Amino acid sequence: MSNSFTKLWIHAIWATKNRQELIDYSIEEKLYDYIREELIEQGCPVRIINGMPDHVHVLFLQNPQKTISDLLKQIKGSSSHFINSGDFILEKFAWQTGFAAYSVSESQ
User: Fold this and answer.
1) Residue 75's pLDDT is what?
2) What is the per-residue pLDDT for 24?
3) Given this model, what pLDDT does residue 107 score?
4) Cβ neighbours around 73 below 10 Å, total
5) How many helices (H) and strands (E) are present in the chain, helices listed first?
6) Residue 78's domain spans which residues?
7) pTM over the 0.90 mark
8) pLDDT-flagged residues of the chain (< 50)
9) What is the pLDDT of residue 98?
10) Does any domain span residue 3?
């Protein structure tokens, strides 16, 4: 529809497999930059990415052409592949199954 308009801010959170503390300062920036670029490629501008050693928080504008599930499946899969193929850490990196996603009021 040519006259459709959406502006849905999504706060998404997902964790490392078994909540292992794998995201330390040595890979944090590389991982966040990669996730940001992947979301932008999917048509989802990113406001902020942050997290802890065992999980990530991302605030992004949802592309109305894509479901949140499809977006996060793509982001989680490609980012774990990025970490593993880059040999940034000694252990195998993986995300836990699932995620949390909340819509966020732009004015709040």
Assistant:
1) 98
2) 93
3) 81
4) 13
5) 2, 4
6) 9-104
7) yes
8) none
9) 97
10) no
| Spatial CA neighbour of 75 closest among 32, 106, 104 | 32
* Residue 48 in tokens: 């902020």
Both tokens of residue 1?
Answer: 């529809």
Sign of CA dihedral 56, 101, 59, 97: positive
DSSP SS3 for 13: strand
Question: Cβ(36)–Cβ(47) under 8 Å?
Answer: no
Q: Give the 3-state secondary structure percentages of the chain, helix then strand then coil, rounded to 5.
A: 35, 25, 40
Count of domains in the chain?
A: 1
In a domain, 4, yes or no: no
Report if residue 2 sits inside a domain: no
Predicted pLDDT at 3: 83
> What pLDDT does 87 receive?
84
CATH of the domain at 77: 3.30.70.1290
CB atoms within 10 A of CB 8: 14
Identify which of 1, 7, 5, 4 has the alpha carbon closest to the alpha carbon of residue 60: 7
- Give dist(CA 50, CA 56) in Å, integer: 6
